[in-house]
Amino acid sequence: MNHSIYSADKSTHLKIVVLALVAGIAVAGFSISARTNSDDQYAQTRVMKAGKPVVVTNSATSVVR
Question: Is the entire prediction scored with pTM above 0.90?
């Protein structure tokens, strides 16, 4: 028994590709079905208004504009 993927025959490569495809479909199907079902069709968001501008510096000196 050879454990190298380079020397494997075509049927082994085909099995690996099919297994990866099935696993990908299973993960995608699970992730779609695992979403939360809520009564709201749209997400609730809050609107925030911008306040006064703030200057942030990392030095102790004053900035005069």
Answer: no
